[in-house]
Amino acid sequence: MKNFFIRLCVPSLLSLIVFLAVYFWQSYATLSLGSPREITGWSLVCVIVFLMLFNLRKKLQAFNLGIVKIWFALHVAFGILAVAFFLLHTGSIWPQGLYEQLLALAFWIVSLSGIVGVYITVTFPRRLTDTGFEIIYEKIPEEIYNLKNEAEKAVTDCAKDSGEQTLVDHYNQTLVWFFRRPRFYWSILFGGQANKAWVNRHFEPVERYLSNVEITYLESLKQLAERKCLVDEHYARQDIMKKWLLAHVPLSLFVVVMSVWHVTLIYAYAL
Amino acid sequence: MSSIFNSYNRPNSKFLCGRSGLWQKPCGAGPNPDGSCGGTAVCQPTKSGDRWRCRRSRQDGGGCDLGPLPDGTCCLTQPACKPSKSLRVKRFRLSVIAALVVVALVCAFGITGGFFFASDPPLRDAGTLSPKHAAVVGEAGCKACHEAHGQGPLQVLKTVFEDNTPSKMTGKCLDCHVFEKEETSVHKAGQCSACHSEHKGSDLKLIKFNDQQCHTCHKVKFSDFGSSHPAFGDTFPHRQRTKINFDHNAHIGTHFKDARYSKAAPEEGCISCHSVGAAAKAVPVKSFAENCGSCHEKQISAQSLNLLTVPEFEGNPFDKDATETSCVDKGSAEVVPGEEYESVSTDALNPIAAVMLDVDPDNIADYQDAVARVLRDMTDSGAEPIAKLLDKEGAPAAKLLAGLNADLVKAGACAWVSNEEFEPVDEGTFGGWQVQELSLSYRAKGHSDPVLKAWYDYAADAENDELSAHLLKPDGPGACLSCHSVNNTGLVEIAWKAGATSSNKLHRFDHRPHLNVLGPGSQCGTCHIVKKNAKYSAAFSQDDPKQFESNFLPIKKETCSTCHNEKKVKQDCSTCHEYHENPAFRAKMDFDSVEQK
Amino acid sequence: MALNEQIDRPTRWDAAFGSTMSDSDFALLMNRPEIKELDAADFPKAAPLEGLVRYDMKVNRYSAGEIVVREGDYGNSAFLILEGELLIARSPGIPEEQLGRVSEGKKGFLPRLMSLIGNGSIPEKRDTDRYQSNGRDQGDAGARGAFLQDVPAIIQGQDIVKLPEGTFFGELAALGRVPRSVSIFAEEPAIVMEIRWQGLRDIMKVDREWRNKINELYRSTALDSYLRQLPILSRLSEEAFSELASQCLFETYGGFDWHVSFNKSRADEPIIAKEGDYPDGLLVVRAGFARLSRKYGSGVKTLTYLGAGDMFGIEELSSSWRGLQEDEFKLKHSLSALGYVDVIRIPLGALERHIFPNMSKEELEEFTIADEQPLSEAAVMEWALDKRYMNGTQTMVIDLDKCMRCDDCVRACAALHDGNPRFRREGPVYDRKMVANACMHCKDPVCMIGCPTGAIHRSMDTGSVIINDDTCIGCATCANSCPYDNIVMVPIRGENGAAVMDTSEGGGQPIIKATKCDLCAGSAGGPACVKACPHDALSRIDFRDFNA
């Protein structure tokens, strides 16, 4: 994490310099009765184009266009610069006019989602490693399936072994919900422990009705449930680690296309 | 660890096994490249001879025990899944949709005024117009200024690429707002939008201009007015002498104190003569009648304008018959042969007549015939011959001879042709044209007498040395020029109206906020301090208005900065300085031309 | 279902070592005494002697000045001089620029652009037409055709050793999987037989004479060339050197194919030297890895590992020489073989006679073994050595605290390999770092041992371990050998997306090929995975650095 902020140093300095340069350029233009809005507007366009280039760079892996971790640091630094340019250009957080408001809304969502993305980048990997095991996102369905099967096998074996239906009934009534698919998505995302609490809460009640033979099966079932908790933690976090970009990328294209029309309108109406 | 035969670890694949979405076990085969399920059957049986053989690969266990079904299908099948698109593909599609949504939005709402909105859609609301412009624009709406409004997207795009020098909006502003001589003005603005922005609601916000913008171009920079604005000029605010020769010092110091005039003297100080109610950039003086007439009225009629004096003749220049038809009463004076002709007049010709006839007034031989001709014609047609003479010079005869009674002229002419003095009817106490014993003159009826004014203007215009010498002097007829100055700035002009004309259009000052600002009873003296020993009147003996000495001490910057400084009153540049020199309107409230567009 | 392409299942000798051998050359070789003495009956049917001669050997005719092998190149073959003689330029060695190295071509701009557009979704698509053409030259790419410009001048300045007819050389590089130790060239035209090491291995397996001869040769040349590189022996005179060399012992511990037992989870670790014993000679590791450990509590604690060039016992031996306390003489640590280890033992007598006297007091005192770390830190080393990761020169380590699990690394790898990723982002995790299943390009690549065709080989100029897809027959030996499961067997598909089958009875089985990370050999700029990670989580490290 510290390493990330160190990598951000030079790009941040660069974007600060660019900001100051444009700031003084446009303030001179204001003083000398030029067109400062054009300057800040086109600066914003240039920065947005640069931000878009990041996606392009990732697609052109074969062309040795620079190390992606540097591009990433530049993308984050220039993203902040874009916000600064936006405020400089519009002079306020929220513009007039429905079209510009829609553009601003999209821009703010993109920027905020970017900042959230940086937060995720810096905090989530550590939490994933803390779970103590590693699983690929695409393999989670298989793992869920296996856990579910093993749980059902344990429960049926218990019934066969002991002749009692207690555990089977409890499983069908309560536990099957948990094993069916990943659960407690939002609790995990916000750092809660609802999954562990649920497991603790729902395994305890049945103990008093089980014989020693069945208890061993309950123990193995609990181990499966604990493993499932870890899988769920991976699922929730890896899911959001992939899906936050579903907000960021499409909306950024939305912003770009809207900006194109915005520039057209400005030049047709006001300049 | 996963098997070495695992071929499913491909994050770049476009499809995911459909079972993974349902939380079942995704099959190891994975979707086919075309998106169909790849794991419906474990093997693809092949016919060898008349038997079907299982073709399951060795790594999956080799041939299975059961073998294919009799019809050749694999025995280990499962229902096909519906492979789902990977997250990357979904993201790409979302992006494309997002872009297309914008295009759709723009096409639906942004171009023609919308399919769903009759009036201008709120999508492009740039803000309300300032009230004045809104009134001008009226029903025409956005199209009044933005021609591309309401047209298709292609037209809007085309507009962008048209020639934009100067910008379209500046051109539109200039449709109504004109700035004369802007090319030679010191401030040549580029685009109007640099300082003026519309669609901001109230009038105030139309203009945004701050001191720093001034300092960007002006070489002499300073931090604020109060502390470091450069000193005002040596004679500020007087750039030239006053139009009316009114010596404040002489009047206030001497004349008003004179016992003879003390009754007529103003009692309330400056405001007795300067009309505070009409205060603006200057505080104008009240009329002559209010201010000056009580003392100076009499001197106006003191001196007359001598249009024509019958000069001395040598010998009788007139025929006997000359006046027979026109002059009824008189026969011509008979000239008894043997008697010597004795001219009734012994004067020289007056200067005006000499100039009109273009003769030497002292040389009888030179002027005798011309004058005689005029006099003879006058007996016929009154003042017409004089008018004709004036017309020949290009003078405005109608004005110059206004009110001249033809009959009176004829009578006088008849007398003079008969070598007799005319007997005036009355004393002419009311002024106007008088035919006197041997002259035709005019006396001012009162202040701003139009005939005399016309004569003075003509004299100034004619640039005739004799005429100028005769008329353009303080003690000329009507004593006009004792107060009204004659100014030669290339053209010779007489200043009839009192009041300063500011030559600096870029300077702005309004007396109104300053009146009484220093407390009741404080008057002009706070800023306008009389200069006791000013050689004021000396300036009026020459005709260059720029050579002068003012009655008042120059106003120093410190006087203003007593109040206009950081702590007290506002002191930004635009308080006192203008940007546009000659702002004006091409047409006022021109609704028609706007609507025709 | 699309129609499956069918091609013949590739076999070991589809691609001969040289272009089709002429019958006269074949006769020449078969009549050679070394080969004639082999009993053809001893050879298995799958790999008959005649096949070995025809397909795994070739006859090279070198012109005057032509370079045979270059020092530093990785080699896959050994040589036998049939006619004429060859020269070794031992010291100071032929200058680098005259050696005529050819670097492998990199993918051009247009092909990269096309791969962007035409990057199909068919996994492991192959153009099967390529496979049909036989007879690809498996010799050292670029070595043929390189000439020394001014042979007499080179000979003048060098310490030259002549190799007469009948000399067998090159087995060290071929069998030892190490770079060529010297440059060898022809002054006059010479005829040389080149045998690729798979053929050599097969002959050695069958014939004892060859086996003993080669092993002897191996030992003596390895010993000699290696001793010359040791810093502590650099000051010796030629006479003292040969005396010392004759006294040195060359020892091997552990099996050459240590991975077999390792993969079966029976990791043998033969002891080379035991803690508490008195050392009788200095041990210098020539090749392989050895664990340095000491007793700790009820177990054994690893301090570090020794690789090629490291010495064991010098501290204890030098304190004996300096006449210190008797306790100082005993070995403080144990040395055990991780995999296989070649060790050179310099006896104490030789040390005392030739080496210690020439060293100053400061030099004698500066030998220290690695510092001891607290248990928790040492645990990483224990884990890594148990897994035999010290072998890796390009181990892919993913810092899981930074990794966003975004798979950009795998995508980048796929982008440079026609849409087929060449590693998997999974692997053992320890101390918050994952060693991913990407080929580590081991110092000792055991995957190469069993390859029948030499498809898996060391690249000439970079030394990376590469699989030649054209000659891979899909036997999966390498995949099964790799102790780290880094090689993946894939079924290949044709242009239409259907699996390619072989032409055997019953419609055929899918053709499979071995695939693994090749460090992006065909592209400029090095491995794409490292450059593609936005979060600085992925690195390819030489395990020495990981250790440090």
Give descriptors for this structure:
heterotrimer; A: 271 residues; mainly alpha; elongated; B: 597 residues; 3-stranded antiparallel beta sheet; two-stranded antiparallel sheet; 21 helices; 29% helix
Give me a quick take on this structure.
Chain A has 9 helices and no strands. Chain A is mainly α. The longest helix of chain C is centred in the middle third of the chain and has 20 residues.
Lay out the secondary structure.
The complex is a heterotrimer of chains A (271), B (597) and C (548).
Chain A: H1 2-31, H2 36-59, H3 68-90, H4 98-130, H5 140-162, H6 166-180, H7 185-189, H8 194-203, H9 212-269
Helix pairs in contact in A: 1-2, 1-3, 2-3, 3-4, 4-9, 5-6, 5-9, 8-9
Chain B: E1 15-16, H1 18-21, E2 46-48, E3 51-53, E4 84-85, H2 87-110, H3 131-137, H4 153-161, H5 168-176, E5 177-179, H6 211-217, H7 225-228, H8 248-254, H9 270-273, H10 288-291, H11 293-300, E6 304-309, H12 351-357, H13 364-381, H14 384-393, H15 397-400, H16 406-417, E7 432-435, E8 439-443, H17 450-462, H18 465-471, E9 486-488, E10 492-494, H19 557-561, H20 573-576, E11 583-585, H21 591-596
Antiparallel strand pairs in B: 1-4, 2-3, 5-11, 6-8, 7-8, 9-10
Helix pairs in contact in B: 13-16
Chain C: E1 6-7, H1 23-30, H2 33-36, H3 49-56, E2 57-62, E3 67-69, E4 77-83, E5 86-91, H4 109-117, H5 129-132, H6 151-157, E6 159-163, E7 168-169, H7 171-176, E8 183-185, E9 190-196, H8 197-206, H9 208-227, H10 238-247, E10 249-253, H11 258-263, E11 271-273, E12 281-296, E13 299-306, E14 311-312, H12 314-321, E15 334-347, H13 348-355, H14 361-365, H15 375-386, E16 395-399, H16 408-415, E17 429-430, E18 433-435, E19 456-458, E20 465-467, H17 477-481, E21 488-491, E22 501-502, E23 512-515, H18 528-532, E24 538-541, H19 543-547
Parallel strand pairs in C: 1-22
Antiparallel strand pairs in C: 2-9, 3-8, 4-7, 4-9, 5-6, 5-8, 10-15, 11-15, 12-13, 12-14, 12-15, 16-18, 16-24, 17-18, 19-20, 21-23
Helix pairs in contact in C: 3-8, 8-9
